[in-house]
User: What shape does this take?
Amino acid sequence: MKLVFLGPPGAGKGTQASKIADRFAVTHASTGDIFRQAVAGGSELGKTVKSYLDEGKLVSDELTAQVVDSMVIDREDSFILDGFPRTIVQAELLDEMLDKRQMSLDGVVFFQLSDQEAVERLTGRLVCQGCGQNYHVKFMPPPEEGVCGKCGGDLIVRSDSSMEIVEKRLNEYKEKTEPLVDYYRKQNGLLKIVDAALSPDQVTRDTVKVIEEIMG
Ligand code: AMP
Assistant: This one.
């Protein structure tokens, strides 16, 4: 199973990718998580990408594609790509990576959400310092305030959760990532749309249905 999860920041695609990956026993590959872990670990990659993440800017297409190529496509047969591709150039680089291994995508799931809803969701995000699990003060609160329900680690406000950064990320999404919806729509039957404004459990059910359709 080779899938791309696409959608505006705040659509919950990371949460859904994590659930769906568990359910279908495939790898959840999030470029945002890979970059955040690199920053937290202080690696060369982390040092290079830190300022981009802090400012809500996109890391270069070439570097991001290299990371996906070596850490995901080269290692895994089945995966959900979450947060990649994010530009047309990245989508073309992904096609090349798959082509050269005689592989192709099975589907692209687009999590659709209005701008207003995206802003509301993005400004309350928490992340676990220990395991990277995401929470939201309103939509997905942790079982105990300030404590991760998965590993017991401390929860902090995500550094990209301020209004200024949120607006920047949404503008960047509109300009660079939204054109991917058309890019994949033009590829016969590849694009599937899920309404991301529904409850997280309903979105999961709809996503499972769509994936079962894709995988026949
Ligand atoms: P995310 O957790 O997916 O929202 O990603 C957090 C940050 O990581 C983004 O704001 C970018 O700075 C960087 N990032 C993640 N994925 C990509 C990508 N495909 N291309 C460029 N930058 C990315």
The two ends are 11 Å apart (CA to CA). The domain at 2-114+165-215 is CATH 3.40.50.300 (Rossmann fold). The chain has a mean pLDDT of 94.
